[in-house]
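Incident log, support desk, overnight shift.

02:14 A customer reports that sequence design results differ from what the structure should imply. Their input is reproduced verbatim below. On-call engineer (initials T.W.) acknowledged and began investigating.
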């Protein structure tokens, strides 16, 4: 079957001159670091069009992506989508005057789009495959009027291929680079989404997380990442690891931008049963109403210094977090420290990695199901993927970056007794650990640095929001994470937004000016 897919990241030869021509058109408005609200206001004031905005981002991708490796493909239809948005805005069509309408979005390349782009999880094995439909979150983005700008790179197969594959390494693009220090880890697996939005290659981006894949790259690239409650956003059409933990979330430069995206993508989807149950958590009126400057007032925040914030006395991290603890208190939060941490965290200390045990079997079932549903594909099973990687080992460097997770998954035989027991154990650990911690101490959120609490949140299907908190001695960013119980996004948004507004840590990477 002939494919309609575009070739990876193909830029017109005249792009640079076009980009230079466009600069005077947007000179009265600075696009770099502009928020969704800034962009919408510029649209309303006729300072900017969606077409100009798309051209700007394509120009920046053309300029910086050869170094950063953050973008896999640019959507060949992005300009036409922008023109459509401009026409709708001019006609004052319903829904065209706010939100994500006319805003370019980059998607992690494991989120399916039924268009001229590929959906590959960063692997050469899925080039020219054809998906049956848009992913659920893409359908919602299109309905909101967003422009699908392109696909962001990722740690190949969402970092679930080989034990020793570096974060940010993608067979289709190579090694993604941290824009704050290109020699340092961008973290994965949603590395390209984080790099791109940090370096102003897109207005907003989407990532996915199974365990740490939104929180960690957000931490390392000075952006805001929201890992939603599992099922709050649809996973239909997303190349899976495990439906039990997979979630799709915003990765943006500000909390407000991330909330605009969450409002657009949250909700039920008939192709993902988990969304039916989780939709009960969505508040009437959406999430924007929780962007409160005084959102820290009265919030009880759990602080386990020794367990999470043991970052070295006098270190840049320690000094920054102590300042932030003071700020949290000054803004009305109560930091709860007199808690027996071992009572709650001790339940997670086991000799067996139950998460990996369950996930390995779940991945085989989930990926085989995904591949079989494709309209066309060079591979139809995990076994096919293993054969592909072996055949193209030199091209994909599989000798160096192996496929141990694939091999482990292929060796499983469905959900047997030990896998089912592992899932039950994980659920019990979450109930006796994080859930009891939060309820018995009446906490609104648990504080953690970096993405150090990602496994607690992942295995329990809990949400988390990470916000920039500082920069280390090498200029690499780090963040402060707020985690809560299922459906606690409104409270976490209040906390994260108030913290962000009180600190305003984020600064753009110097690479933007190079």
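02:41 Re-run completed on a clean worker. Output:
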């Amino acid at each position: 079957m002939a494919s309609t897919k575009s070739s990876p990241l193909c830029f017109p030869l005249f792009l640079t001159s076009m980009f230079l021509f466009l600069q005077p058109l947007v000179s009265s408005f600075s696009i770099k670091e502009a928020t969704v609200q800034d962009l919408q206001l510029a649209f309303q004031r006729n300072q900017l069009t969606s077409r100009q905005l798309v051209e700007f981002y394509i120009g920046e991708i053309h300029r910086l992506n050869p170094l950063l490796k953050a973008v896999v493909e640019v959507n060949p239809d992005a300009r036409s989508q922008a023109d459509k948005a401009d026409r709708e805005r001019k006609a004052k069509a319903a829904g065209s005057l706010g939100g994500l309408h006319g805003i370019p979005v980059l998607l992690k390349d494991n989120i399916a789009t039924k268009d001229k782009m590929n959906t590959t999880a960063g692997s050469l094995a899925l080039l020219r495959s054809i998906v049956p439909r848009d992913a659920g979150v893409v359908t919602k983005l299109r309905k909101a009027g967003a422009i699908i700008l392109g696909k962001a790179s990722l740690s190949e197969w969402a970092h679930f291929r080989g034990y020793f594959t570096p974060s940010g390494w993608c067979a289709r693009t190579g090694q993604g680079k941290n824009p704050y220090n290109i020699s340092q880890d961008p973290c994965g697996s949603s590395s390209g989404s984080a790099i791109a939005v940090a370096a102003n290659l897109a207005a907003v981006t989407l990532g996915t997380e199974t365990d740490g894949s939104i929180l960690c790259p957000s931490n390392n690239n000075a952006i805001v990442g929201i890992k939603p409650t599992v099922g709050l956003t649809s996973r239909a059409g997303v190349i899976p690891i495990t439906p039990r933990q997979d979630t799709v979330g915003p990765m943006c430069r500000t909390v407000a931008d991330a909330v605009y995206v969450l409002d657009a993508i949250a909700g039920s989807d008939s192709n993902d049963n988990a969304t039916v149950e989780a939709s009960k958590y969505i508040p009437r009126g959406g999430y924007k109403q929780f962007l409160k400057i005084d959102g820290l007032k009265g919030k009880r925040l759990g602080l386990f210094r020794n367990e999470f914030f043991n970052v070295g006395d006098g270190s840049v991290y320690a000094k920054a977090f102590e300042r932030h603890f003071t700020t949290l208190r000054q803004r009305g939060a109560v930091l709860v420290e007199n808690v027996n941490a071992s009572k709650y965290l001790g339940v997670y200390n086991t000799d067996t990695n139950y998460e990996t045990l369950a996930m390995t079997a779940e991945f085989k079932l989930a990926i085989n199901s995904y591949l079989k549903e494709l309209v066309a594909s060079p591979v139809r099973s995990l076994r096919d993927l293993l054969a592909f990687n072996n055949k193209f080992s030199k091209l994909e460097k599989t000798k160096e970056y192996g496929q141990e997770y694939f091999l482990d998954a292929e060796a499983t035989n469905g959900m047997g007794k030990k896998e089912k027991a592992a899932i039950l154990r994980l659920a019990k650990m979450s109930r006796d650990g994080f859930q009891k911690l939060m309820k018995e101490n009446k906490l609104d959120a648990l504080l953690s640095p970096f993405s150090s609490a990602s496994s607690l949140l992942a295995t329990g299907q809990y949400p988390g929001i990470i916000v920039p908190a500082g920069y280390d001695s090498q200029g690499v960013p780090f963040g402060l994470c707020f985690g809560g119980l299922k459906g606690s996004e409104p409270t976490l948004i209040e906390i994260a937004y108030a913290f962000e507004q009180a600190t305003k840590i984020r600064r753009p990477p110097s690479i933007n000016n190079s």
